[in-house]
Design goal:
This protein has ten helices and 14 strands. It is of the alpha/beta class. α8 packs across α10.
């Protein structure tokens, strides 16, 4: 399915083969903590809060997977999905929004998620257009900085982190279960990070967001990343350190007057390529190119004396 990653990640119009791959995809459920589960499939990871107050879903992957996702939720708790929280606007996290909304879920997200889902989005990088989400799939409750849901014997703190993966990222922290869901500000080993600059993302925002996540997480916190397996605080710490290190190396190359090709060839990611998948949607070279393109206008080569 990797060859269809561009369509899958942004939820663009997918070729028939990708649709067939989704039709055969399975949703796997893993218990994270009492009252908290994670659902894994071909898209972004899904979080689930369940209990006496009903089900709260965090993200929902792709439209064709809605029946399978709902079946997986029902296997954990037969109640309907009461709330759906989107961590950001990309289609691998919001594709099933219309089905969830039609089924009665109240959709919650950052202000910018509603704005981006409400209009067609043209991506120069992907050379494609994501059609606006139908009204049934739009967030009906939005926030600027955050909101807290008091449900299922827990307090779910929804925290906005600005201009990181996108301009509408949110993390969710179960204060009693001690679980943190990061959305795509944290990719755990599955691929090098995708910084969607066309949606307001930035490397400095990613660094700040992962630092905020480290502030929230404790030694025993279980973390549901945007992609990849469940993680611990040390995994998040290593990820944050990688972002800081690669950014510093790219910045040094720019200040030294090196071209993008020269900086890529220097392999600023070399120390991490055995720990992070190099054949994912974002290759090491693409990750470095993204950082270079962002930092180049801000930095100038050091003047020779």
């Amino acid at each position: 399915m990797r060859r269809f990653a561009a369509w899958l990640l942004l939820g663009m119009s997918m070729p028939a083969a990708a649709q067939q791959d989704l039709a055969s995809a399975e949703i796997r459920t893993e218990q994270v903590a009492p009252g908290v589960a994670a659902l894994f499939g071909p898209g972004g990871n899904i979080g689930l809060s369940y209990g006496e107050d009903g089900n709260v879903l965090i993200d929902d992957q792709f439209a064709p997977l809605a029946p399978k996702i709902l079946a997986a939720v029902k296997a954990v708790d037969p109640d309907p999905v009461r709330f759906l929280i989107n961590t950001h606007w990309h289609g691998d996290h919001t594709g099933a929004n219309p089905a969830m909304g039609e089924a009665g879920a109240v959709i919650v997200a950052h202000d910018n998620v509603r704005k981006r889902l409400s209009t067609d989005a043209v991506s120069q990088m992907m050379k494609s257009t994501t059609k606006a989400t139908p009204k049934s799939g739009l967030p009906v409750m939005t926030f600027a900085q955050g909101v807290t849901l008091h449900l299922n014997g827990d307090d779910l703190q929804v925290v906005h982190v600005p201009n990181a993966h996108t301009d509408g990222d949110a993390m969710i922290y179960w204060t009693r279960a001690n679980v943190l869901q990061t959305g795509d500000v944290f990719f755990n080993k599955a691929t090098f990070p995708f910084i969607d600059r066309e949606s307001g993302g930035s490397i400095d925002g990613m660094i700040a967001a992962s630092a905020r996540a480290l502030d929230i997480a404790g030694p025993a916190t279980r973390i549901i990343p945007g992609h990849g397996p469940l993680a611990a605080r040390e995994d998040l710490r290593a990820y944050h350190a990688m972002l800081v290190d690669v950014r510093a190396k790219v910045a040094a190359g720019i200040r030294a007057g090196r071209t993008k090709a020269q900086v890529v060839a220097s392999r600023p990611t070399a120390a991490y390529e055995g720990k992070i998948a190099t054949n994912g949607f974002i290759t090491p070279a693409r990750f470095v190119e993204t950082i270079y393109d962002e930092l180049k206008p801000k930095l100038q080569p050091a003047r020779k004396r």
